[in-house]
Task: inverse folding
C-alpha cells in the first residue's frame, strides 16, 4: 500500500479545517483530504452568519449568557467564555483575509458591519454576507491558503479509518487510511497529528439541510478507534426549511425570523407566542417542537413563514439567495408566505475535545461540527457554529504545532493498523466486488427512514428501542459488505452512517429526561441529576 508522511493530516475542507491549515501550513507540511471538491462542505451551505461581539452596545457577558441559556444547562462555561472572548478576533482575521460581509451606514454616514439578530440572541450581533455567509467564508479562506507553500489538498479522497499504533505504551493515532474515490486505490498517510474537521451527520436523516457529504465520517472513525464521543442525542432540527416537492429541504435562514418573519398556520394564525416569551425569536429547539405540535394538532403538512410585510426591495437585498431559489420554484416570497417544516440540521455533540481541540485519543484533534467542545450544550445558539469552528480550529492549530515542535513520528514506526477492529482481520485489501448502486441507495434510504421515523424531534422509549434494534442489523450488514468489497466509497459512508446513527440512539436511550434538543414523551421533564454530558466510548 502506498505510504506518505506529512506533519499534519486534516480531514475536511470546511471553515474549521481551513482555519487550522492557515496557521500550520506556514510552518509545517500539511495535507487536506476531502472526499469531494475542496469547496464542498457544510460551511458552504451556512446562510445565516457568525455571532460575535463587534459593536459597542453588546457585551461578551450577554453573548455568553445567551449561549448558556440556549444550551439548557449543559454548556461548559469555560468553553463558552473562550468562544465569545476570542470570537471577535477570529472575525477580524476573516475580514483581513478578504471576507466581504454586509455593511450599512449609520445616521452620520459612517459605514460599519450590518448586524442581524436570530433566535435566542438578546442583541443584534450576527455578522453576515447577505444570506450566503458560509459561502463567503469558504471563498475567502480557500483564497488565503491557495498559495501556502507547505499545503497540499487532495480532492475526492475518502478517509476510511484512523491509523493506530502503540507509541510510548499508549494507543496513538499516527495517520489515516484513505480511498481514492476515482481509482479505488488505498493509501496510508502517516502524520504527527490528525485533525478531524469533517463536519456533521445530517444525512443519517431522510430530510436534512446538509449536503450529501454529511455522513458523520469523523465521529464514526474516532469512535471506532476508541476516542470518546459526547452528547450525540442532541441533533438540532432547523425549524424552517422549504416545504416543496422540488425544494430538497432548502434552508430558510433563521435570519428571516430575525428580520421580522412571522410563523403562521395555514389560516394565518400566529402561534409562537403560546410556546415561548420570545415568540418567533425563540431558540431553535422550541420553535421546531412548536411547529411539530401545530402540524399534528391541525393535521397540516407545514406551517408558513410570512415576510410579505417587509417589502419586495428589502427582501431582494437582504435575502437574495432565498428569494432567487423560491422564485425558481414559482414562489414569490414578497407576495406569499413561505411553506416551511423542520429538518435535521446540526450535530451539537461529537468527538469530545478539550479547549485546544485535543481528543481523548493521543495524536487526534477535532474542530468544527465534528467536535464536542462543550460550547453548545443541549442546544446550539444560532450562528455560534461558524464562530466555534474558527475559534477552536485556530486553537487546535496552535496546540498541534506546539506538540509537533516537541516531538515527531517515532523512529522505526511500530505496526500500524486501522481503527475498525471488526474488519481488521480481513485485511484492507480484501475483496473487490461492490454491490450494485441500487442496493446501496436502498439501504441508505432505509437507514434514513428509521432515523426520521423513530429518532426525530419528539421521541419515546419504544421508538428508540425499535431504532436501536434495526440499526444494529445495519451495522452488521455494512461490515459484511466491507469484507466482500474494500474499494467502494458508498459502503464506507453507509458504515459511518450506521455507526453514527447507533451512537445517537444509544445516547438518547441513556438520557431519561427531556432537555434541549432531546424531547422524550416518556420523560417530559428535565432531571437535575442528568445535567451532565452523555459520553460514549467503544467498549463501554
Result:
Amino acid at each position: 500500500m502506498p505510504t506518505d508522511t506529512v506533519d499534519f493530516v486534516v480531514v475536511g475542507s470546511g471553515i474549521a479545517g481551513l482555519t487550522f491549515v492557515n496557521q500550520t501550513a506556514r510552518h509545517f507540511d500539511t495535507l487536506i483530504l476531502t472526499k469531494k471538491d475542496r469547496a464542498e462542505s457544510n460551511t458552504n451551505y451556512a446562510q445565516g452568519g457568525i455571532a460575535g461581539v463587534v459593536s459597542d452596545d453588546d457585551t461578551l457577558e450577554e453573548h455568553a449568557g445567551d449561549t448558556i441559556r440556549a444550551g439548557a444547562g449543559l454548556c461548559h462555561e469555560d468553553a463558552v467564555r473562550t468562544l465569545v472572548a476570542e470570537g471577535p478576533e477570529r472575525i477580524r482575521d476573516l475580514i483581513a483575509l478578504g471576507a466581504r460581509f454586509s455593511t450599512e451606514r449609520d445616521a452620520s454616514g459612517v459605514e460599519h458591519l450590518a448586524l442581524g439578530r436570530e433566535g435566542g440572541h438578546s442583541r443584534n450581533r450576527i455578522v453576515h454576507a447577505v444570506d450566503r455567509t458560509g459561502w463567503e467564508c469558504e471563498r475567502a479562506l480557500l483564497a488565503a491558503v491557495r498559495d501556502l507553500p507547505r499545503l497540499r489538498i487532495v480532492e475526492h479522497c475518502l478517509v476510511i479509518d484512523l491509523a493506530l499504533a502503540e507509541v510510548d505504551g499508549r494507543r496513538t493515532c499516527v495517520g489515516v487510511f484513505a480511498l481514492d474515490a476515482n481509482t479505488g486505490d488505498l493509501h496510508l498517510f502517516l502524520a504527527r497529528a490528525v485533525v478531524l474537521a469533517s463536519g456533521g451527520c445530517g444525512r443519517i436523516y431522510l430530510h436534512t439541510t446538509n449536503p450529501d457529504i454529511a455522513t458523520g465520517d469523523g465521529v464514526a472513525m474516532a469512535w471506532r478507534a476508541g476516542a470518546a464521543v459526547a452528547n450525540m442525542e442532541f441533533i438540532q432540527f432547523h425549524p424552517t426549511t422549504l416545504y416543496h416537492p422540488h425544494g430538497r429541504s432548502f434552508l430558510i435562514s433563521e435570519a428571516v425570523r430575525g428580520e421580522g418573519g412571522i410563523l403562521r398556520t395555514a389560516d394565518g394564525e400566529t402561534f409562537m407566542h403560546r410556546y415561548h416569551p420570545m415568540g418567533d425569536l425563540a431558540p431553535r429547539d422550541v420553535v421546531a417542537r412548536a411547529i411539530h405540535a401545530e402540524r399534528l394538532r391541525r393535521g397540516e403538512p407545514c406551517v408558513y413563514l410570512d415576510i410579505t410585510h417587509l417589502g419586495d426591495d428589502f427582501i431582494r437585498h437582504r435575502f437574495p439567495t432565498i428569494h432567487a431559489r423560491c422564485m425558481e420554484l414559482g414562489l414569490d416570497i414578497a407576495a406569499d408566505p413561505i411553506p416551511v417544516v423542520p429538518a435535521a440540521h446540526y450535530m451539537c455533540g461529537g468527538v469530545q475535545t478539550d479547549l485546544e481541540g485535543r481528543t481523548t485519543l493521543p495524536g487526534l484533534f477535532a474542530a468544527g461540527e465534528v467536535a464536542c467542545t462543550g460550547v453548545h450544550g443541549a442546544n446550539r445558539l444560532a450562528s455560534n457554529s461558524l464562530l466555534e469552528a474558527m475559534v477552536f480550529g485556530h486553537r487546535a492549530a496552535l496546540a498541534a504545532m506546539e506538540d509537533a515542535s516537541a516531538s515527531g513520528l517515532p523512529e522505526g514506526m511500530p505496526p500500524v493498523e486501522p481503527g475498525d477492529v471488526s474488519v481488521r482481520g480481513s485485511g484492507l485489501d480484501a475483496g473487490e466486488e461492490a454491490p450494485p448502486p441500487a442496493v446501496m441507495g436502498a439501504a441508505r434510504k432505509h437507514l434514513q427512514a428509521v432515523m426520521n421515523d423513530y429518532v426525530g424531534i419528539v421521541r419515546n422509549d419504544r421508538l428508540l428501542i425499535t431504532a436501536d434494534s434495526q440499526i444494529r442489523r445495519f451495522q452488521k450488514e455494512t461490515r459484511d459488505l466491507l469484507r466482500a468489497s474494500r474499494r467502494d466509497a458508498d459502503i464506507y459512508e453507509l458504515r459511518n452512517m450506521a455507526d453514527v446513527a447507533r451512537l445517537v440512539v444509544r445516547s438518547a436511550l441513556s438520557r431519561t429526561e427531556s432537555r434541549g434538543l432531546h424531547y422524550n414523551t416518556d420523560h417530559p421533564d428535565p432531571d437535575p441529576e442528568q445535567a451532565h454530558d452523555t459520553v460514549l466510548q467503544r467498549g463501554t
User: Anything to note?
Assistant: The CA atoms of residues 95 and 119 lie 25 Å apart.
